Structures are given as structure tokens and as C-alpha cells.
Amino acid sequence: MTSCIFCKIVEGSIPGEKVYEDEHVIAFMDIMPVTKGHVLLIPKTHRENLYELTEEEASNLFKVAPKIANALKEEFQPVGLNLLQNNGSFAGQSVFHFHMHFIPRYDKSDGFQPEFNSKVEQFPMEVVSELANNIKLRLQA
């Protein structure tokens, strides 16, 4: 996709501070980092989101993910790391080429504050079981 900024980084028509590359994936520094060491990992093949990835493409990404995380851990000694991936604009995706954010964490005031706003009431277990069964059926199809 010629209009995709990440595809342009893959093809080399715009610069990117690459930290890892193989035949399937590329990792590079985020140009608007949330914290020091913020890295993005993408497939070289344009896929808009997680729903479009093949199992092989996902496998190629997650083979590299621990390497990236451990390199960040060794280099920056963060107290934690968030692995973030958004699908669709409602979920916060702004570049529509699948990518994972590796965000090293340093303290509570480091610029990234993910939080879950849990519902006040929990789902009853029979509802949770029904939802789980429906998902299982989809996975067997």
C-alpha cells in the first residue's frame, strides 16, 4: 500500500530507526514515543489489523516479540513493559497497518496510564459460561 506510512518504512522510501529486521517483520523506534525505548513491531506484509493476520504472520511476529522485549529490558532496565495492540479506530488504532507497541515502563508518572474501568457488577457465572461456550464453538468452526 503506497499510502501506508509503515509500508513506506518497510520499502525504505521513508526513514525509520530500525532495531530489528528479518524476512517477515521489522521493528523500529516510535517517532512519538510514550516512554524511552518505545518500539513498534510490524509484519512486512500490509495487514490492517489482527483480524487480517494469517496464523503464520502472527507466529512470525510473536517469535520476535520476546527478543524485542528482552533487548529493551537489558538496555533500559524498566520496571515493567506494556505490549499494546489496537484494532480499529474505536480501539485507538491510528495507523492502519498491524503493529504492536512495546512500551517500557519506568514509574507511574512516565506518560502512559493504561487502566481498566471494570463494571461495578460482575457477569453471573452462567453468562460467563455461555459466552465461553459460544467462543469455543467459533474456534471449532
TrEMBL record:
Motif (Histidine triad motif): 97-101
Entry's Gene Ontology molecular function annotations: catalytic activity
PROSITE patterns per UniProt: HIT_1 (PS00892), HIT_2 (PS51084)
Residue intervals of the HIT domain: 5-113
Lineage top rank: taxon: Bacteria
Residues of the active site: H99 (tele-amp-histidine intermediate)
Gene Ontology BP, a term: nucleotide metabolic process
Pfam families membership: HIT (PF01230)
PANTHER family, per database record: ADENOSINE 5'-MONOPHOSPHORAMIDASE HNT1, HIT FAMILY PROTEIN 1
Record-given protein name: Histidine triad (HIT) family protein
